[in-house]
């Protein structure tokens, strides 16, 4: 008995040849129906959460200052239209650590036209009509109610406006903290206090304000540069499309051009960064280390430090060396990968609409991201101002929630005459507010789930389209009409459940990663041994879970991995270089344009707070666009590999059972008929 006869049937019977075979589509039915139903229910719940958030939230709370009653300072059409600045009754209460948790100072806040410009106490103001007329600008009610209800601040400081909020005008004089050029001030009780007592309150309050100020500046930069950002993204799209079209006709030449161009662009980056590093040698302050500089919201400051450019030089040099070494060691595989890309180009020629399908995926992802972001903002701004009874002496209502508007005439005020209804925090006592954190978690989880579902749908659609090309025995006659749309229809009709199941697993892993990162940040400085042990256990569990998912993925694609994974990864590497080239070219153009370093565009470029904002946006957007176009080639090559394995399983190359693979693929992957026969039992064994 020959070796071939001995092997036949040892690892399972091969499939019989079918001349009308167009892929394993017989007896097709819906998969993972339960997960499909679960996904639909989750989407309906997500829509309900969005509607609920939009009905309760007000994003203006995250941008504009609001007084203690929840009214917006400077809002048009209201009595506060001309009162655009927010004044704190007692800024020192902002030193309370609760400020950093609730993002709200536990003191009365009032909208005013101008910040105070002088020292003054309420006791002094009541003795002088002129002073009192000035003081009333910072009081909540008319003069008859001020003394009775204590609706005025006990003291005023010279203040400056910062993000439309009044903060004491602190300074340094001989190393001593001053406020209004004075090192001391008289508080509302007649006690002399040092100006440094105000520092903690101002510091905590400005932590929140500075973060909001950065957000506002970034928002303003986007409003000034969105047009140019779109132009940069369009250029990236045209470059990507140009490379893909040229690869259709000149695949080998284009790959070598991309390789040389990437090396040249990175080399220029090294040269440019070194020249910046050398030019800063004698500049004052340029030798400050990044550790000494600390975190700065204005990133242009980092570009004035030599160490920043040195870091860029080192990073780019390492990238250059790694790429060159990979090209040297994989030079033979690169030739095979180029041949594979040529074959993929033939498939794409018959379905050019596949080139634009990533734009549809990108649009769906943009909708998912926008829905998540808007819902998150509305959820975070749906809290209400909560007021509670505060009393210096014993009071049965102390700590209870009160209504600020009519507290002076309420029963609580009658029972406790010296009590006050003070602002406590932003929150709520309703069922909705109690489960607000849960709704935010649901919003994040559904974001991951939907985003992964959209990506999986794109992958399955392209895979189905390219599979229809492979299984067309006579190309292009047997290729179905509208292969991309047909593949997407089959994916949604039969495999929505499977797509939802796979994306659900990824969403669970990603949400666990987010939670672990959050815990890691919270417990970094913890001295509690149990907390550190718990975090270690969680990381261990997550590591095991990640390994398990990788194990499942490895077995799901075992047919590809046992034989052709190396060539596949080399192809991915070459296409990745193409993405880098697009990003590098567009990024360099954006840098010189937005930084104003090109005199021809000096007057055209917009004036920005942070010119790195549009540059970073263009770079990230360019990579996503390039990834979308080049991923079509990645998916095409991967699909051809998998179909190749199925082809070997079903056919033997005889006239009765001919291969569907093209001559090019056969020449690329196998050199002899013996190799094909040797590989066939390995395929059945891998199942």
From TrEMBL:
<keyword id="KW-1000">Mitochondrion outer membrane</keyword>
<keyword id="KW-0812">Transmembrane</keyword>
<keyword id="KW-0050">Antiport</keyword>
<dbReference type="GO" id="GO:0015297">
    <property type="term" value="F:antiporter activity"/>
</dbReference>
<keyword id="KW-0496">Mitochondrion</keyword>
<keyword id="KW-1003">Cell membrane</keyword>
<feature type="transmembrane region" description="Helical">
    <location>
        <begin position="350"/>
        <end position="374"/>
    </location>
</feature>
<keyword id="KW-0597">Phosphoprotein</keyword>
<feature type="transmembrane region" description="Helical">
    <location>
        <begin position="573"/>
        <end position="596"/>
    </location>
</feature>
<dbReference type="Pfam" id="PF04515">
    <property type="entry name" value="Choline_transpo"/>
</dbReference>
<feature type="transmembrane region" description="Helical">
    <location>
        <begin position="608"/>
        <end position="630"/>
    </location>
</feature>
<feature type="transmembrane region" description="Helical">
    <location>
        <begin position="309"/>
        <end position="330"/>
    </location>
</feature>
<dbReference type="GO" id="GO:0005886">
    <property type="term" value="C:plasma membrane"/>
</dbReference>
<comment type="function">
    <text>Choline transporter.</text>
</comment>
<keyword id="KW-1133">Transmembrane helix</keyword>
<feature type="transmembrane region" description="Helical">
    <location>
        <begin position="33"/>
        <end position="54"/>
    </location>
</feature>
<dbReference type="GO" id="GO:0005741">
    <property type="term" value="C:mitochondrial outer membrane"/>
</dbReference>
<feature type="transmembrane region" description="Helical">
    <location>
        <begin position="446"/>
        <end position="473"/>
    </location>
</feature>
<protein>
    <recommendedName>
        <fullName>Choline transporter-like protein</fullName>
    </recommendedName>
</protein>
<feature type="transmembrane region" description="Helical">
    <location>
        <begin position="226"/>
        <end position="246"/>
    </location>
</feature>
<keyword id="KW-0813">Transport</keyword>
<comment type="similarity">
    <text>Belongs to the CTL (choline transporter-like) family.</text>
</comment>
<keyword id="KW-0325">Glycoprotein</keyword>
<feature type="transmembrane region" description="Helical">
    <location>
        <begin position="253"/>
        <end position="271"/>
    </location>
</feature>
<feature type="transmembrane region" description="Helical">
    <location>
        <begin position="494"/>
        <end position="516"/>
    </location>
</feature>
<dbReference type="InterPro" id="IPR007603">
    <property type="entry name" value="Choline_transptr-like"/>
</dbReference>
<keyword id="KW-0472">Membrane</keyword>
């Amino acid at each position: 008995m020959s070796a071939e006869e001995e092997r036949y049937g040892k690892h399972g019977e091969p499939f019989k040849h079918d001349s009308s075979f167009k892929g394993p589509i017989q007896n097709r039915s819906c998969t993972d129906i339960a997960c499909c139903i679960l996904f639909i229910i989750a989407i309906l719940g997500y829509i309900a959460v969005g509607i609920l958030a939009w009905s309760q939230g007000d994003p203006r709370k995250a941008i504009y200052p609001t007084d203690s009653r929840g009214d917006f300072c400077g809002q048009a059409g209201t009595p506060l239209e001309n009162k655009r600045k927010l004044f704190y009754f007692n800024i020192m209460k902002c030193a309370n650590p609760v400020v950093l948790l609730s993002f709200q100072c536990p003191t009365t806040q009032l909208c005013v036209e101008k910040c105070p410009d002088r020292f003054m106490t309420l006791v002094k103001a009541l003795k002088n009509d002129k002073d009192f007329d000035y003081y009333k600008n910072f009081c909540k009610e008319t003069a008859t109610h001020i003394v009775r209800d204590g609706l005025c601040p006990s003291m005023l400081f010279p203040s400056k406006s910062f993000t439309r909020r009044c903060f004491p005008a602190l300074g340094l004089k001989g190393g001593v903290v001053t406020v209004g050029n004075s090192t001391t001030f008289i508080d509302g009780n007649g006690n002399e206090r040092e100006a440094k007592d105000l520092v903690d309150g101002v510091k905590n309050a400005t932590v929140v304000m500075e973060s909001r100020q950065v957000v506002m500046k970034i928002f303003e930069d986007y409003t000034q540069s969105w047009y140019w950002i779109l132009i940069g993204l369009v250029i990236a799209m045209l470059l990507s499309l140009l490379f893909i079209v040229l690869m259709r006709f000149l695949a080998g030449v284009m790959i070598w051009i991309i390789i040389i161009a990437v090396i040249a662009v990175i080399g220029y980056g090294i040269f440019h960064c070194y020249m910046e590093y050398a030019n800063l040698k004698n500049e004052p302050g340029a030798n400050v280390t990044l550790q000494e500089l600390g975190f700065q919201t204005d990133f242009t400051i980092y570009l004035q430090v030599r160490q920043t450019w040195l870091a860029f030089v080192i990073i780019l040099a390492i990238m250059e060396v790694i790429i060159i070494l990979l090209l040297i060691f994989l030079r033979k595989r690169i030739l095979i990968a180029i041949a594979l890309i040529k074959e993929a180009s033939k498939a794409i020629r018959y379905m050019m609409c596949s080139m634009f399908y990533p734009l549809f995926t990108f649009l769906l992802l943009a909708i998912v991201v926008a829905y998540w972001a808007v819902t998150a903002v509305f959820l975070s701004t749906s809290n209400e101002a909560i007021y509670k009874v505060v009393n210096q002496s014993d009071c049965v209502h102390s700590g209870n929630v009160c209504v600020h508007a009519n507290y002076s005439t309420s029963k609580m005020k009658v029972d406790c005459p010296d009590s006050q209804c003070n602002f406590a925090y932003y929150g709520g006592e309703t069922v909705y507010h109690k489960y607000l954190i849960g709704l935010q978690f649901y919003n994040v989880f559904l974001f991951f789930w939907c985003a992964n579902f959209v990506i999986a749908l794109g992958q399955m659609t392209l895979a189905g389209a390219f599979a229809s090309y492979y299984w067309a025995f006579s190309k292009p006659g047997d290729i179905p009409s509208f292969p991309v749309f047909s593949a997407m229809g089959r994916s949604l009709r039969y495999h929505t459940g499977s797509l939802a199941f796979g994306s659900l697993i990824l969403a669970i892993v990603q949400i666990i990663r987010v939670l672990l990162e959050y815990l890691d940040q919270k417990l970094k400085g913890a001295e509690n041994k149990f907390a550190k042990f718990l975090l270690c256990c969680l990381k261990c569990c997550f590591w095991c879970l990640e390994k398990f998912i990788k194990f499942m993925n490895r077995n799901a694609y075992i047919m590809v991995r046992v034989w052709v994974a190396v060539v596949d990864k080399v192809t991915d590497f070459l296409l990745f270089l193409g993405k880098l080239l697009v990003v590098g070219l567009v990024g360099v153009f954006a840098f010189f344009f937005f930084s104003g370093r090109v005199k021809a565009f000096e007057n055209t470029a917009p004036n920005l707070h942070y010119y790195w904002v549009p540059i970073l946006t263009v770079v990230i957007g360019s990579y996503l666009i390039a990834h979308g176009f080049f991923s079509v080639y990645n998916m095409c090559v991967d699909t051809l590999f998998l179909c190749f394995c199925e082809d070997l399983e079903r056919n033997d190359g005889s006239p009765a059972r001919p291969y569907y693979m093209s001559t090019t693929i056969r020449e690329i992957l196998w050199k002899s008929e013996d190799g094909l026969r040797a590989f066939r039992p390995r395929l059945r064994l891998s199942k």
